[in-house]
Amino acid sequence: MNNDILIALLSFVGTLIGSFSGMKLMSYRIEQLEKKVDKHNGFAERIPLLEERFKEIERRISDLEGER
Predict the structure, then answer these.
(1) How far is the C-alpha of 46 from the C-alpha of 11, rounded, in Å?
(2) 4-62 tens-digit pLDDT
């Protein structure tokens, strides 16, 4: 009977260690994904600004070409 209890306790401890290490790894990976998403969001916010600048530059170029 003692062997059964010892085996059950060892299994329980192994399960706890596996679960906590898995949670820690999952937390780390989620943090890394959040960093990538933040970087992407920053880039996505700048695109409309660049588009507006590009339109302004195109207008200026057409004005200069029209002056010839």
Answers:
(1) 53
(2) 999 999 999 999 999 999 999 999 999 999 999 888 888 778 888 889 999 999 999 99
Kindly list the distances between the CA atom of residue 55 and the CA atoms of 43, 48, 52, 59, 65, in Å, as whole numbers in the listed order: 19, 11, 5, 6, 15
Q: Which residues of 48-65 are buried (b: 16+ CB within 10 A; e: fewer)?
A: eeeeeeeeeeeeeeeeee
Q: Fill in the DSSP letter of residue 40.
A: H
Q: How far is CA 18 from CA 13, 28, 32, 39, 61, in A?
A: 9, 15, 21, 32, 64
Distance (Å, whole) CA 59 – CA 61: 5
